[in-house]
Design goal:
5-stranded parallel beta sheet; alpha/beta; 12 helices; Rossmann fold; 47% helix; P-loop_NTPase
């Protein structure tokens, strides 16, 4: 009588397992035989966020939700009063406000990217802009509460792409390759995530006015920002929002005079509250054609 060696037992066991697998069954460790169960593939939900997903991976079945709240972004130069407007509306019911994620930029695992980008633009600007784009996308794809009727953002992903990135590229601070990568990321996000806006509130101000405000508020990172940089940002905002160039912007724009005093600006908020909150969607006043033509002449477009 022959006894089986461990090698022979292993070979027979593998043969049986392979035969069972071909027939749609599997043998468990306890020796039981059960059918093979294939997990169902799950399609991405309509609120899929891009974070953690490679831009090279194709996503399907992502649909823009039709039941989302009215989305408004508050735009303007540094020191134009964006956070003031955000605070003004934050106390109203049904309004979710999203301040700029400055604390994220100031502390990325101990690194102050905001400060680094101001101190050495040539070295750190691309790194900073990539992270800004990521954080803005996180904010702008935040799932609102069920009772939210308006989502209000302090600046937007669109702002980063068509204002700050454009300014950096034109000034030579951003290499063409870096510019293209950021643009590819933006286009991927736009095509695969719901980042649409319904209204932009543009706090229009002169560079000289916001420069004085910036110096007065004394943010440490802004101490080295020159007036010339604010002038360049102003021109970028004007081209983005005031020229009717749909390659830059096709979102309705409500322009408010941000050169006024705080009391006068607050009065503008009250007067335009219904428009800002999306209650006059069909009757929103847009930028006058004459003003747009004037801006084009100033920018030599």
């Amino acid at each position: 009588m022959f006894s089986s060696t461990p090698l022979q037992v292993c070979f027979v066991s593998r043969s049986i397992s392979k035969t069972l697998e071909m027939e749609g069954y599997v043998m468990t460790e306890s020796g039981n035989i059960r059918p093979i169960v294939t997990p169902e593939k799950k399609s991405p939900t309509k609120r899929t966020n891009f974070v953690g997903i490679s831009p090279q991976r194709e996503l399907t079945n992502i649909r823009t939700p039709t039941d989302r709240p009215f989305r408004v972004s508050v735009e303007g130069n540094i020191g134009a009063g964006k956070s003031t407007l955000i605070k003004y509306f934050s106390h109203l019911p049904g309004i979710e406000t999203y301040p700029e994620p400055i604390n994220w930029w100031r502390n990325l695992d101990g690194h102050n990217l905001l400060e680094l980008s101001y101190l050495d633009r040539d070295k750190w600007l691309n790194t900073f802009q990539m992270y800004v784009q990521l954080t803005r996308l996180k904010v702008q794809t935040t799932v609102p509460q069920s009772t939210t009727t308006v989502q209000m953002f302090e600046r937007s992903l669109q702002n980063n792409r068509y204002c700050f990135v454009e300014q950096a590229f034109k000034s030579g601070a951003l290499h063409g390759a870096d510019y293209t990568i950021i643009d590819e990321w933006y286009k991927w996000a736009k095509n695969n995530c719901d980042i649409d806006l319904d209204l932009i509130v543009y706090l229009k101000s002169t560079p000289e006015v916001v420069y004085e405000r910036m110096k007065a508020r004394k943010r440490p990172e802004e101490s080295s920002v020159p007036l010339e940089y604010l002038k360049e940002l102003h021109d970028s905002h004007e081209q983005w929002l005031m020229t009717d160039d749909i390659s830059f912007n096709s979102i309705p724009v409500l322009v408010l005079d941000a050169n006024k005093t705080l009391e006068e600006i607050m009065e503008q908020y009250k007067i335009n509250e219904s428009k800002i909150l999306g209650n006059e969607k069909k009757r929103r006043s847009v930028v006058e054609k004459s003003e747009k033509e004037r801006v084009k002449r100033v920018l030599n477009l």
